[in-house]
Specification:
DUF7086; mainly alpha; 3 strands; three-stranded antiparallel beta sheet; 10 helices; binds zinc ion; about 40% helix
Length: about 270
C-alpha cells in the first residue's frame, strides 16, 4: 500500500473511530467464538461499517478499557445472508392484512406511535444500532429526577459508547449469570445529580404509560432495574418472552432482548 492511500486509510479510521472500536470488539468476540468462520463474520460486520476497506490496526485506537479473553457464547441464529433473503414474487397480490390486527392473537404486533425517535412502532421494540447510526441518532436522552433536590432534567447518553459498555459487560459475564440479572442490574448505581452533586441519587422518570417507557435510555444507563416487575413483564410479553418469574429473571431477559434488538448479530442470545 502506498503512503497516500495509507494516510487516507488512517483519516477514515480517525473519523469512524468509535464505530471501528465497536466493530473490532465484535470481531474479537466472534473470532473467539467461531474461529474459522471469517467469511460469514465479514458479511455480518458489514452492517456496522461505513466502508468495506481492509482491516488494519489503528495506532490511535484505545482498547485499554476493553476486555480480553471474553467467555464463549452461542452463535447468532441467522447469518445475514439468510436474514436478508428476498421472497419470490407470488402469483397474485393479496391484500395486506391490517397491520394492527397482525398477530393480534398474542398481542405482540400491535402498531403504536413510536414514543421516541429510537423506538419502533411496535411495543417494547427499539431500532437497530445500524438504523440509528444511519439516521444520525447518536445521543439518547431521557428524563431523570434527583431523589434529594427533586430537580427534573434531561440526561443524554452517547449511544455507541454506552452500548459498548453494556455489551462488553454482558459478553464477559453472561455465562456466570445463569439467566438471572446480577445485583448491579437489580440495584443499579444511579447517576450523580448534576445540580446538588449527590451521588447515586438520580432516578429515571416513568410517566406511568408503559407504551412510553424509554427502554433504550434505561438500557444505556443500566437503569432497567428501576423498572417495576410489572414494567418488565410488559416488556417480555410484547417481545415474545413468554416467561414469567422473579424480577431477576425478567430483568435479565429484558437486558438481553434489548441488546439483541440493537445488535441482532451480537452475543445476546438468551
Ligand atoms: Zn439533586
Amino acid at each position: 500500500m502506498n503512503n497516500q492511500s495509507n494516510e487516507q486509510e488512517i483519516n477514515r479510521k480517525r473519523k469512524n473511530n468509535m464505530s471501528e472500536i465497536f466493530c473490532t470488539h465484535h470481531e474479537n468476540l466472534r473470532v473467539e467464538e467461531e474461529g474459522e468462520d471469517k467469511n460469514d463474520l465479514t458479511l455480518r460486520l458489514m452492517s456496522f461499517r461505513p466502508t468495506t476497506r481492509p482491516r488494519k490496526q489503528s495506532p490511535e485506537r484505545n482498547q485499554s478499557n476493553l476486555p480480553v479473553g471474553l467467555p464463549s457464547f452461542p452463535p447468532p441464529p441467522l447469518p445475514m445472508s439468510q436474514s436478508v433473503s428476498v421472497e419470490p414474487v407470488r402469483g397474485s397480490l393479496r391484500k395486506r392484512r391490517n397491520p394492527s390486527k397482525a398477530n393480534n392473537k398474542d398481542g405482540n404486533n400491535e402498531i403504536i406511535h413510536p414514543p421516541f425517535p429510537w423506538a419502533t412502532n411496535r411495543r417494547a421494540t427499539i431500532h437497530t444500532l445500524d438504523y440509528l447510526l444511519t439516521k444520525k441518532i447518536i445521543t439518547i436522552s431521557g428524563e431523570v429526577q434527583c431523589k434529594r433536590c427533586e430537580r427534573k432534567y434531561q440526561m443524554d447518553f452517547d449511544l455507541k459508547e454506552k452500548f459498548l459498555e453494556v455489551g462488553t459487560y454482558i459478553a464477559e459475564n453472561k455465562s456466570a449469570m445463569h439467566d438471572r440479572a446480577p445485583d448491579i442490574w437489580m440495584n443499579p448505581l444511579l447517576p450523580t445529580c448534576q445540580f446538588c452533586k449527590q451521588e447515586n441519587n438520580v432516578k429515571p422518570v416513568f410517566s406511568g404509560d408503559k407504551n412510553s417507557i424509554n427502554w433504550l435510555f434505561l438500557l444505556l444507563g443500566r437503569m432497567l432495574g428501576c423498572c417495576t416487575l410489572d414494567d418488565l413483564k410488559y416488556f417480555c410479553e410484547h417481545t415474545k418472552n413468554h416467561r414469567t418469574g422473579a424480577k431477576d429473571r425478567v430483568l435479565y431477559l429484558t437486558y438481553l432482548t434489548l441488546c439483541k434488538q440493537l445488535d441482532p448479530n451480537g452475543p445476546f442470545d438468551r
